[in-house]
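Reproducibility note. Readers wishing to regenerate the assembly model reported in the main text can use the exact inputs given here. Chain order matters: entities are listed in the order in which they were concatenated for prediction.
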Amino acid sequence: MADIPLAARRAHRRRLTGWGFVGPFLVVFAFALVAPIGYAIYLSLFREQLIGGNSFVWFDNYRQALTDPQFWASVRRVAIFLAVQVPIMLSLALLAALGLDSARLRWAPLYRLSIFLPYAVPAVVASLMWGFVYGAQFGLVSRLRSALHVDLPDPLSGSWVLASIGNVVTWEFVGYNMLICYAALRSVPGDLYEAAEIDGAGGLRIARSIKLPALRPALVVALVFSIIGSLQLFNEPNVLHWLAPNTIPPNFTPNMYAYNLSFSGQEYNYSATIAVVMGVLTMLAAGGVQWYGRRRMA
Amino acid sequence: MTATTTPARPAREASAAHAARVTRRQRGRNRHSLILSLLMTVMLLYALLPLLWLVVNSTKTPGALFSTFGLWFGGPFALWSNIHQVLTYDNGIFVRWLANTLLYVVVGAGGATFLATLAGYGLAKFDFPGRRAVFFVVLAAVAVPGTALAVPTFLLFSDLHLTNTPWSVIIPSLVSPFGLYLIWVYAQDAVPGELLEAARIDGAGEVRTFFQISLRLLTPGVVTVLLFTVVATWNNYFLPLIMLSTPQWYPLTVGLNDWDQQSFTAGGQAIYNLVITGSLLTVIPIMIAFLVMQRYWRSGLAAGSVKQ
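Running the prediction on these inputs yields the following structure tokens for the assembly.
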């Protein structure tokens, strides 16, 4: 009987211990994640005016963003990017994962590692490298053009530049997405395949009835990351911008627009507004996919 | 194993027990698909050719970069002289950038992993008031893209006069909600509650239990989180670009981009050979880390993607 209060005291202490473990993370979390978001929202409600200085303007900045053709041009670009590049990249990743898992591939680990390797390359280096390949001076594309006497399009011209950036992003992330899918496929117990084969299921039937359901959560994760990556596109176009300043303008993507607004333009309030709008749009899109994916699984 | 060393033996002769032991993978050895190999080889070439381009062109002199074919060696072998130039150009600024990157990686990624491990473990193994609220806030934060935070964080830090210091890069790197989530998932299975209970009965304090027992069980998860945070900080570009204005504090990524831009600015010296060789030197350490620790990131990816 005497040890009940002791246990209760221990339990109470353990409650506080939990906070002790979580506390340090939460302090940094509050300072480096919550505070910037709050500050950006606060800034987005103000405007620096020539007359009257810094004044509270309610949602005027948001109204400005909604009617800003420069902003909408950037949103349209990343939307096209999302609609074209992401399906291509994820299909390639899915096919490669199915190939790795099919047991019909010799030296599968070699393929797995090699295709994943570009993920370790920093986006800046990847963009510099592909920039050299695309570029006019000693680019492979221009060299191929003169060697083969064929009229290859300029990868950095207006109609091709988005596709060229899509290629850099695909190169960087196809292996990562392949591994996410592959990990999901490997988690299917072998007995399930044995049973399906005994029941006379063919390869296609197995792919549809066993592999695709197992892949769905992984595809949802890959899709969420890809949506975030597309809507928040910055590194690749910002590096390539120097090679193609005319076809990659400062408002090429929403993030580049926000960055250049606060850097070249000193328009901090409007820059914060753009960041908030894009953050909300990204979370809505990513959250929507997650919600839809989960509902389909249930 | 016998089935693979003597493939000529008809399957019928194998005992039933042996047949059961033959896995899917082993049976597959006999029916490799040529078309599949070809398709996968195309993917492999797509992944590796740009890297081959980087290696090949690191060995070229600036002149040979323009005059020889990009995907094969040509001109005098200049790799060592290129590396020497990279390390000594502009009073050895590249070495400074490397040191900065290491600082950001060790303190930023190391700190992020430590904080995420403590918190993920705390959330998984302790019941405390407000636990659910904390969990949902952090889970919501997993969906907040890091790049969306760069501009807001810059605006806040510049008001606090923190920009253009190492802290402006390190502090934002310390938060990894995704790392916390991975550890939380991992700790639920890896650290049995009975074990903690036994340690408590033995009179061990919670902190000691964590460091001496739980941390060891959590190691694969911790290494995974460390790997992801190391890659994130090593490859970080947007945040340091926006935070830092003096090259003295640049990490490698921002510095390399600066070198590249030199050739586009009026009066700037084009140093393509340094950009290319510097890129190679930037890529090599992180690739080695990946290849050495591949066992861990694979298990981590599995935990993150399957257990959604």
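We highlight two features of this model. Chain A has two domains: 1-36, 65-123+166-297. The longest helix of chain A spans residues 3-44.
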